[in-house]
Amino acid sequence: MESVEFSASAEEPARGFLRRAWDITFRMVLRYIKNSYKDDPFRTFLEVCLIGFIVWYITKQKYNIGTNEIELSEKEIDELVEEWKPEPLVPALTEFERETLDKAVMIDGPNGTKVRLASGTNGKPVLNFASYNFLGFLDDPELSKHAVESLRKYGVGSCGPPGFYGTLDVHMELEKQIAAFVGHSAAILYSQALTTTLSVIPCFSKRSDIIVADEGVNFAVQKAIYLSRSKVYWYKHNDMADLERVLGEVNKQLVNRRGKNALPRKFIVTEGLFQNSGDISPLNELIELKHRFKFRIILDESYSFGVLGKRGAGLTDHLNVDPHEIDLLIGSLCHAIGASGGFCCADKDLIEHQRLSGLGYCFSASMPGILTIAASDAIQALEAAPDNYLDNMRENTTLLRTLLKRIPGLQVDGAAESPLIHIRLSPDALVRMKRTGGTWTKTDIDRVLIELSEEALKDGVLLMRATYVEEHERLLPNSSIRICVSSGHSRKDIEKCAHAIKSAVSRITSKKR
């Protein structure tokens, strides 16, 4: 009895303390509410609504994913499985696509001016006029030997992006070498030529910006423009009068917008040497229009770098233009240079911006050391003795163009200085070949060109029809065979190529279709 009384007397002070603490706390909260909300009824209303929402959210009925589940019997499940037909991952090939795939040529062994094919030539080498080996570096044994030796030091790849742990000393040396060779402030190296273009243009031109582009640019440039999500205006291929008209219209539209929001960045996008036509851009006129209408220039020199100019430094070298006039100069190391990857030359601030925002730089593994060294050695060889490579390539180009233009029924396109030559059957030849009342479709012409390349292959000359992703081309070029002239070809090789094409054209055009 005494212990019960002692316990009850001990609890009374504790209860009294808690009661006093609660009373003090309640008064403090009440005083705070009175002082805080006295002159702010909106705050009171807002917090009451917030508290009400929290209470509603906690007490409302939760969605149960299994509430509306339908029970199926085993038989019903089996019937649904039997009826289900998966859609193909890619659309079915057309008859012509299947024909093209079946006749595809495969090189067995190293690439170069002379190659062996996996089938069809009895193991005999054939002359290769289908690869972008403009300077013949793919045939250089010294470059190959040095690149293979570098495997012991650098391995086969970095396995990491440049910004993480993929940068090697040879990458930084090559960037400095390219910038000095081109004559620009700085350069950045990308591991793939295609992703160079796809990274550089979207890196600087965004959704609210403006691009005015030549409608004859290649597929990579078209896709880069699409990825930028910029507002795009197209001008007729290499037509400076039409470009001037488009630039004037764009600036007129922007005058009406002024004051509503910030003015967008404005770019002219074109190629140095056009892949789809072999034409060369009139760069001097582009630069004049750039200054007059306050635009920037993005120039893709993927096919002109190593080909045009006294030193092979590209279109700026060819036309004696200061490279700093080009705001963003894109180039490739996998065509004339015979290695891999690509680069962009620009002012130092623009290069550093790409190291943080160029998707192909930030999220792709860096270029393998072996290919970096191959590119560096090729540029060094070109710098040391440009005449050894460029003069022979240009002589071969002039000779082949001269011989091809003598072939009846053949149309030869592209600039005179371009080693990238497109040949087509002339309209007159196509008319003579077609039976009365018939018309030519693009597929018909493509079949004839494939047949022409097969006939040339019988004479030991490898040619390839130019192919395109037709549904994605802004301006689909006419069907053609693309010929790539190399410094590694001899005069005899050029003459053999022209003779093989002449014989093939003669045999093809003699048939009625």
In short:
The chain is built from 20 helices and 14 strands.
Give a description of the structure.
Strands 3-9-8-7-6-4-5 form a 7-stranded mixed sheet, sandwiched between helices. The chain has a 4-stranded antiparallel sheet with strand order 10-11-14-13. It is α/β, with parallel strands linked by helices and 513 residues long. Helix 5 (141-149) packs antiparallel against helix 16, helix 16 crosses helix 17 (386-405) and helix 19 (442-458) crosses helix 20 (491-509). It contains 20 helices and 14 strands. The N and C termini lie far apart (124 Å). It is elongated. The mean pLDDT is 90.
Q: Strand-residue fraction?
A: 5-15%
- Sheet with the most strands, sense and barrel status: 7 strands, mixed
- Unreliable sequence segments: none
Number of helices: 20
Q: What general form does the structure show? A: elongated
The helicity comes to 40-55%
User: Structural class, judged by helices and strands?
Assistant: alpha/beta
Give the integer mean of the pLDDT values.
Answer: 90
| Strand line-up in the sheet with most strands | 3-9-8-7-6-4-5
- Give the radius of gyration: 34 Å
End-to-end separation in angstroms reads 124 Å
> What is the number of E strands?
14
